[in-house]
Amino acid sequence: MPSCLFCKESNSRTVFTEFGTPYLKCCNCGHLYSSYESVEHYDGYFENQKDNEAAELFWDLAHKRMYSSFSKRYMAGMNGRILDVGAGLGFFVKFASAIDGWEAFGVEISPGGHRFATETLKLTNFYCGKLEDQPFEPGSFDIITLWDVIEHLKNPRPVLQKCRLLLKDGGILFMHTPNGEIQLAKAKIKKALFGEKEGTHFLEAKDHLHLYKEKSLRRILEECGFRRTKFVHLPPIQAVAGKSGFLRLFLKNKWWFWSVAASKLTFGRLNWDNLFAEAR
Ligand SMILES: [Zn+2]
Q1: Most buried among 20, 135, 209, 247, using CB within 10 Å?
Q2: H helix runs in the chain, sequence order
Q3: Residue 1 Cα, ligand 1 centroid: separation in angstroms?
């Protein structure tokens, strides 16, 4: 049975069960994590990426608003080198490399993602394997991004420590990950209303091994050498559980709008949005 990422103890209670796999909450620190015993394997990720149109719809078009908002905030009018870790099919690297003054790099552990990025998107600065094994020079990046990556890592410390090493002084690490407590509440409501129908997405117990909140994300970043963590808001992915659909998307965007409003009104004390963290 996996133990808490922070307390290294198994003193936990079940807070949600997803198709037979319990999600646990640490009785000491409240960290949420999946009980799924994952073996580190990435062969299945992006391996069957045959439908290029579907890939573009989700990974490119549905992400564009979020990426554009990111580039306006962190890249516009500046120049430098940006690295995307867990770059998947490479759409963010492609997006970033089109921005004036920026050289964009990607690292992806799955051979399928790497193949798509280099063969279909024709990306050249795109590497296959673990970040820790890549030949990058310390202090050689201005920005490192981790889009929807940290929740998949059994122990994110080696990756975060390596990011710290690769960033220049004053460089920014940027992360997007689900907001654990909010996702848990939504999953409970969904299950109560609709039950466990095959194919329903709840918390992704076999993929999302850790669900963070502001406090735990800040804590893991500090453990890995980051000193200043700040939470911001970017527009959400324009799809729900990988699908578009007017009503679901409308509700998602409304939720986002009110989350940002609540955060502003409470000076950041309430955050119902996904977690978008910048750390230096
Ligand atoms: Zn704990």
Answers
A1: 209
A2: 52-55, 64-74, 91-97, 111-115, 157-166, 180-194, 214-223, 246-265
A3: 14
Evaluate if residue 23 carries a pLDDT over 80. Answer: yes
Specify the CATH architecture of the domain 38-177+212-279. Answer: 3-Layer(aba) Sandwich (3.40)
From CA 22, how far away is CA 40, in angstroms rounded? 19
- Please report, for the chain, the start and end positions of each structural domain, with discontinuous segments joined by +: 1-37+178-211, 38-177+212-279
For residue 35, report the distance from its CA to the centre of ligand 1, in Å. Answer: 14
Q: pLDDT tens-digit profile of 32-74? A: 999 998 766 665 677 766 677 788 888 888 899 999 999 999 9
What the block records as the tokens of 129 is 């394997």
d(CA 224, ligand 1 centre) in Å? 17
Residue range 165-188, pLDDT digits in tens: 999 999 999 999 999 999 999 999
Q: How far is the CA of 207 from the centre of ligand 1 (A)?
A: 20
CA of 11 to the centre of ligand 1 (A): 8
Neighbours of ion ligand 1 (CB under 5 A): 4, 6-7, 26, 28-29, 31
Longest dimension (CA), the chain: 51
- Burial class from Cβ neighbours inside 10 Å (0-12, 13-18, 19+) for residue 58 reads middle
CB distance 229 to 217 below 8 Å: yes
Q: Which residues contact 140 (CB under 8 A, 6 or more apart)?
A: 81, 166, 168
Quote the ligand 1 centre to 233 CA distance (angstroms). Answer: 27
pLDDT tens digits for 228-245?
999 999 998 888 766 667
Distance from the alpha carbon of residue 9 to the mean position of ligand 1, in angstroms: 7
